[in-house]
Amino acid sequence: MNIKSIIRMVLSLTVCMTSIFSYVFLQNAVTRLKIQIPKIEKQLLAINDEISHLQYEVDQFESPDRLMDLACHPDFSHLKHPYLKDIKTVPEGFALTLKKEEKANTKIVALPIGKR
Amino acid sequence: MKTDHTDRKRLAIIAIFLLSLYVLLIIQFYRIQIIQGTKWTQYALAQHQTTLKESFRRGSFYSNTSIKKGHPEEDQPFVLDIMKFHLFIDPESIPKKHKAEAAKKILQFLAIENENKERITKEFYRKSRSRKISTWLEKSVKEQIQSWWKDYAKQNKIPSNAIFFQKDYQRSYPFKTLLGQVLQTVQEEKDQTTMQAIPIGGLELSFNKYLKGKSGKRQILRSPLNPIDSGKVIDPPVDGADIYLTINHYLQAIAEAELKKGVINAEAKGGWAIMLDPKNGHILALAQYPFFNPEKYKDYFNNPEMTEHVKIKSACDVFEPGSIFKMITASIAFMANEELERKGEDPLFSPDEKMRTTNGFFPGRVLPLKDGRLHKFLNLDMAMQKSSNIYFAELVKRITDRLGDNWYREKLLQFGFGRKANVQIPSESFGLVPTPGKLHPNGKLEWSKPTPYSIAIGHNILVTSLQMARAAAAIANGGYLIEPTICRKIVQGGKVLYDHRKNKKIIYKIMSKNSTDRILKSLRCVTKYRGTSPLADLDGYSQGGKSGTSEKVINGKYSKNQNISSFLGFAPSYNPRFVLLISIDEPKVKWIKGAGKNTLGGVCAAPIFKEVAQRALAYLGVEPDDLANETKDESQMLINLYNDWNQ
Questions:
Q1: Contact B633, B598 (CB under 8 A)
Q2: A38 part of contact set with chain B, CB < 8 Å
Q3: Cβ separation B70–A41 shorter than 8 A
Q4: From B102, B158, B370, B408, which residue has the greatest number of CB atoms within 10 Å?
Q5: Chain B residues within 8 A of A85 when measuring between CB atoms
Q6: Integer Rg of chain B from CA
Q7: Are residues A60 and B623, on separate chains, in Cβ contact within 8 Å?
Q8: pTM for the complete prediction?
Q9: How far are the Cα atoms of B28, B495, B618 from residue B540, in angstroms, in the given order?
């Protein structure tokens, strides 16, 4: 066996071993992620439950009764429900295509309290 | 040499014997591992693992936020399942010397009443592996107990699983009593086998098959060190479907708030209101006072006086509608005109006809019919405005004389009386339209000679508020008998299971638009000066309606002091956005200065109609259509004509 063949063999073995190792590393990374899935799933469920709970508390705070009481408060008495003719609806993506002039002429109506 | 040979032979035998044993062992391994592998795996898993049920979320009810045109349609729940925790202990795992201290500490966290303290302490001394100590705990309380227990159990070498929590979803109401009677609730304890909630009534009961979810399965390793909420979900739970109602939370809140105010002002026993969209049959609000608090449902069933307030009276209770029924009588008279016109005969009446209304004697009646005051001549507008009994009885006399009792009864049925409106509300009543020839339980005929004249003014007929609102909607929408509904759609996991818009409906055209427009005109006069219900006159908007007062039947007799007073109207009158019926149960008999008798529908129910309608129209963004009070001029002309005829 000459030196050339030995070098070729060593190179081939190195490439082969590197590929195998990188494959194994990749598999390990995938396995690590797979192990994390149930944990993340559990966290996600807990977050969803937390969101529901917070939503429930927000709804309690923003109950129609409370909003109606607030509407009677002098600080908010200037807020009125808009008439249907005063409400402009902008189709999705339309606002982005507006030219400067059109933007200046477009009236944006703020929603009154309690309208979400 | 011989010895060597014998030794070799013995060695061979031993080797063969050992080899045979080894082969047997291999065979046994094969049998256990391969042939009986599944069986032994199951045994092993059963010993080391256990399967627990994974709780699911019951479907929710959502408000109709699509009603506000031009506003984002967002999910607004009336009720939803919130995760809570049940606290369990394993008394066998807690050493006797630590029981008292552990019980005392837990009681501090739970902050419960004295009478329950003793019961809970006793649970620590029971011979059991699992005792439920407390239910529906908040997450914060659970975390407090867990953090204390972790250190305490470690310090005293108690298995950490001696105290554990089970998660569960509790029915929660962000708006408390809002829509209480309609939604109702579920029992506190679930079915332990299926983990399904048990509804007590209302929409929870009628939509139960959709709201139900399916429990999942979770596998955990059996170990005192393994927390009960660990493990792997092998079968995920399926949440129940969500019901999107036609009721809007804001309109419902307006109706409930104003109804409560009105009932208290009238010193009445209670009241209810129904708001219906005449174009599509959507029930927009269904209020009732006294309210029902779903979170305290047991109080209502433990007290017979409160049990009455659980049912949805608008759909389940029947009553004699009284004068609000006169709009139906007028409608049937117009239908008779249309029928006679088809036959090529003279019309039954003209709404502008000068009709004599001095004679209250009608065939079969022992006592004559009377009006509030004597009117010599009236036309339809005046009769509606003054709520004349004689005028409407006369109209029905003409109908039955020319078309017969059966034709008249058939038209009553066409308006939906005497049958369920088929809204998804349990225990909905049929009502009662008398049948000729049929006997009452007391032996008297349901339909006798004077019956049509009584029905003309809303007596001798039993209706639900829902049926009445539906019939009025047919007048408001140009003559179409719509199918009322409370459900817009049902959605489960993003998939639409039911959509009311796509559902096949049969809508009957029962009257012509010309007839309904003319009836609407006459109903507009009622809320104007000299009408029976000026207290229902809206600021800036046109409206139409009719008040009614009926006597309740108590122990088989009409009661003079116990009434149901109602106002049935719509607004704006030229293009009604909704039909609204307000009914007040047993208003106090008293005189209101400047208004009249408190028991009259025009006095106690009409102001509630005004407040609800005014606020609801503003919320819906409906522009005022009567700022110049043009309907007042219409009314003034009528007054002048009345004065001419009745001088």
A1: no
A2: yes
A3: no
A4: B102
A5: 623
A6: 36
A7: no
A8: 0.86
A9: 95, 44, 11
